[in-house]
């Protein structure tokens, strides 16, 4: 008889749905938070890419007319070959650093 009561308790506990809604809600909310965080990280990385493009273009234009340029964030390297200036900007972002390159002709006075 005790075995039968024990198996009845186990069966009733396994059939009990109480608490499953809480677990489903917790999993759903945590998944939503992860997706939102990934979206925010992606948007921030795209913003860093736009900033890198702007910084590379500004650095190349400034160097082409002979003015020094200091990027607001990140770093810029400039190389000259065959009358062309190549500026490469690198800016840190959430999913890794992003780079952009701009090429401008050297202006002669």
From TrEMBL:
The keyword Transmembrane helix applies. This is TadE-like protein. The chain crosses the membrane at residues 21-44. Keywords: Membrane, Transmembrane, Transmembrane helix.
């Amino acid at each position: 008889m005790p075995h039968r009561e024990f198996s009845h308790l186990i069966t009733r506990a396994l059939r009990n749905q109480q608490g499953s809604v809480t677990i489903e809600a917790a999993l759903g909310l945590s998944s939503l938070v992860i997706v939102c965080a990934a979206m925010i990280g992606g948007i921030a990385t795209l913003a860093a890419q736009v900033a890198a493009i702007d910084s590379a273009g500004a650095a190349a234009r400034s160097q082409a007319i002979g003015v020094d340029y200091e990027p607001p964030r990140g770093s810029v390297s400039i190389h000259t070959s065959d009358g062309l200036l190549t500026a490469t900007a690198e800016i840190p972002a959430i999913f890794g650093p992003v780079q952009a390159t701009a090429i401008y002709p050297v202006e002669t006075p």
